[in-house]
Specification:
3 helices; mainly alpha
Length: about 80
């Protein structure tokens, strides 16, 4: 797995400190462990990353909540497909 891949989805105008970046990475890594066996893991990884970043941009810093929100978003995306 690519540690830090979530960072590639951070927009240039959004800046996170080291601690927050570490939280984003932890949440992302946990989320993608749950989606590795799904049909389109690449697309799901991007959806998860974007959801984690969006919530972190609004102030969420709990990695478990960030991960759960990302997985919930993926679940809604897959069921809509």
């Amino acid at each position: 797995m690519g540690i830090g891949r979530v960072v590639q989805f951070v927009r240039p105008e959004t800046a996170f400190d080291f601690e927050t970046t570490s939280i984003l990475i932890a949440a992302y890594e946990t989320a993608i462990e749950s989606i590795e066996d799904r049909l389109q893991p690449g697309a799901l990884r991007e959806i998860a990353a974007r959801r984690i970043i969006a919530l972190a941009s609004r102030g969420e810093r709990d990695p478990e909540r960030l991960c759960a929100a990302a997985l919930a978003t993926i679940g809604r995306t897959e069921s809509a497909a």
